[in-house]
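[scheduler] slot 2 assigned
[scheduler] job type: sequence-to-structure, two independent chains
[scheduler] chain ordering preserved from manifest
[runner] begin chain α
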Amino acid sequence: MNNQNIINPNMPNGQGANGGNYPYYPAAAQRSVQAEPVKQETIMTKCMKRQFSFFGIASAVYALFYTFCLYKNASGITHPFFVIGTLCYFFLSMKKLGVPYKKDSLFYMISIVLLGISNCCTDSQPILWMNKLCIFGLLFILILHTVYQDEGWNVPKYIGAVLQTIGGAIACLFCPLIDMTSFFAAKKQGKSDKKSYGVYVLLGIAISIPVLTVMVMLLCSADVVFRNMVNKIFMFDFSFGDSFRIAFSAVVVFFMSYALLAALCKKSVAEEVTDKKVLEPVIAITVNGLLAVLYVVFSMIQILYLFIGNMQLPEGYTYSSYARQGFFQLLAVCIINLIIVLFCISLFKDNLILKIILTIIGGCTFIMILSSALRMLMYIERYNLTFLRIFVLWALAVIFLLMVGVSVYIYYQRFPLFFYSVAVIIVCYIGLSFAHPDYWIAAYNLNPAHIFNEDSYDAYDSERYLMRLSADAAPIILNEDKNPYLNNAAASIEETSFFPYYQKIRRKSEGMNIRNFNFSIFIAKRWQ
């Protein structure tokens, strides 16, 4: 080891180990002059500013791509390409910043792509809305997982990190302008390593957007054939209102995408997870002990009255009427119980009695889940299927699986509860998304066994609900072999009560083009 430059504080003149003269510093001063480690966010931020030509152009191209894929296009075939393009934009940016790819990100990427594919395979508005919400949430989890070391993160930490990142992106909204100014200033002072035309390309793109928009508007008004071709491709008229909204959407996405990268470069989220188990467990034991007693009594009633059904019911109640109520309330209690158990595990000190009480609450929650599911099934048998009733059954199944993971986590806290929870929710939701619930709703409600059972069927309400279903249900509703109302009709479909649904499907199929092609609507077109 070379000791030439090691300061020897024991020598009065601060001589080095080899007798060289160095100024003497006290120990505290020595610590202050030591080189502080360069923060990673500073390196990444400088890298992003230095390569503004790349990140500016990439964000501009992504903004145009986003607008083309999603503007006035809720369920088109461009959705899978949009999510793939978003992943490419993100990982290409991370590669430029020197952030490595993690192999376990593959699960999130596959899930995001599958949800994008689901968007162009269904016409159900609730499913489309939840698909987009899941894609947004998974993208943020993927982003945080890539940038940070998140092995020990829990659910509250991830929620806080997502909110902090969104807040940081909002705070960095003007970073494109600031970085562009500093980039030009560096070029002017001759600090850039090589000549780059990237910023000029970005300015050219920015100038070309309004110019091309105006020219397309003029050409569309000059020639009707060209106008029809453009409308078929883009699915909107190049009017002033549309042009303004397109430009506004592209500008907003450009600033937000660049700002998100700038916020990630700052790495403002602390990676370490502080131990928050500081509360006295006696508090939780007291509260949860009383809840456990209440839940045990309630669970016994469910077993004796609902599951076994051999106890005397209150006056005026039949067994079926007793069973067909309370499922929404029980669903709410199950969700609250899940939150309570997670809250106690995260904030209260480890205690064996508390763990036993939480286990009892978890066991009672399983009974409540089964009770709510049984009540819902009996309610469906009486009043038929709706999307909300299917979603309740799905939610109960997900809560059951989550509660299994939480029960394991109570006693084995190295269990990856967050990843398990995300995997359960995403895998179960992808199954729901591709299942086409509207198809099964129509199949169940139009089953002759339910239609002609007057004690359990309201024909008017059921038909009115079926009219609101998406194109996913067309292979049942517009199929004479599956719909008894069409099979028994002597006249054409125009004279049946399902003609409004037929018209809705025809309007949707006629409005399809290159951007908004949807497989569900395409299949429904066969049954017109």
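[runner] end chain α
[runner] begin chain β
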Amino acid sequence: MFRKIFLLSCLLLAMMATGCGGGNEPAANNSAPEVDVTGGKIKGTVDANGVKIFKGIPYAATTAGENRWKAPQPVQSWEGVLDCTQDGPIVIQGDPQPFDPWTAEYVDGGYTIENGKISEDSLRLNVWTKADANAKQPVIVYIHGGANVSGSGNNEVYKGDNIALKDVVYVSINYRVGIFGFLAYKDSTGEEVTGNFAIQDQIAALKWVKENISKFGGDPDNVTIMGQSAGSTNVQNLICSPAAAGLFNKAVFLSYNNSTSEGVLLKTTDTLENMESTATEKLDGKTLAELRQMDAAEILKLGYMPNSATIDGTFVTMSTKDSFNSGNFNKVDIICGGVFGDPYLFDAFLNLGNFMEPKISLTADEYEELLRDANAENLLELYPAGENALDAAKSVNNDKTISSYYTVAQEKNSNDADHRSYVYFFRHPVPDTPERMEKYGAFHTGDVGYWLNNFTKLYPRNWTDTDKKIGDEMSSYLVNFAKTGDPNGGDLPEWKDVASTSEISYLDIGDEIKFVEMNPDKADFWTNYWQTK
């Protein structure tokens, strides 16, 4: 029962780990490339397309024992050559299992504490590159989702076999999650920890990239951080963290849960007082010394899953909203946006159910009642029921979501005129059975595989030429952005940045990709809506 509740919590918080993976199998006979990194020498593999792959590279020491709830400690050196040809362990969490739209390719199936694939010795990262040392290719560092209580950089969707073919060095990372990554607590002895271990892990991984990535052909001065769902909130916290200054110069955050009825950019942080008060209630008087002596599995059974960054004065100094509005953040180019299915998980304007029980039909009368409940009957003129009231209701929800992304980009852009901000919205249904496609469509995380040009074989999805074309174009936008801060280039449809548009506008990713401006009357409504929050 706990496992079911655990998985449900992850998904309803809108941050289930990963999307559509799959890549090239390692070549049968490869040259076993070796690289000297912090800690010693590592050995990887080469796939059939010449992409060098290194898995499970330690970037910090184990977090077990006395290192639990401490800043990431320096990696321990090893003798000889460390085999980095297989996925390493992932951080402590409940056993990953498929759930609803997130089929086998979206989780680390078969990973358990018992078999050692889930471990506290798991601050590791993976590298894909086709470049030679010092080639100075742009670098993309991916920060996974999973509600900040689950997930890993090992997942199929995050694998970089195909994106590396487009002349970038690609890195995916693990970081502590849940109580291991976000505990803020002052116990009865006076010992205190102030949370943000996950953010500290991500900063440590970025420092590893800064120090080592040139040996894989990457440019340490041209790093893009990219995250989806919970990973996107972490990306925003890194943008706002003075401790992360100089470690990256571009950022991509996808499907972030920041839109509420009160405004945008409100959910990425909490106060130290609130976090410590909650922990005191949940941990039943246990001291930190006692907690460090418990097995990791025992700590999971406590059922406490903090997943929010804490304003600690060092790694997180203010809320994301205050940071963006005051200009106190790391100035970078950004891409932000989300997908058609996000309102089922986030704060929707109209209640159309969720992924477990979505509304599959809606009468015009029911639609009008939903608008009355939301005190928005005036929207009926902008979004008439027409022949399909459910489609009209979905349009209301999605336009609210799109406008929240645009508002975030504008808020950031208003205090950073020297860098660009781009907004997208993904609504192309991910292939599945007809019944599942009708239910899930373009579901949360479904866009990630397209951004990385990865198309899974772990679950029988009938990928079409249209899917492959969309993946090629989306990944090209991403690579162009990683190179220069501008996603445009070649024959790609033009994608305008926020500063060059006067209305709510975005890259619309359906069966075709095109740049669109929202209907002016609708745009005025949503602009005024957010201005009053």
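[runner] end chain β
[qc] chain β: The mean pLDDT is 91.
[scheduler] slot 2 released
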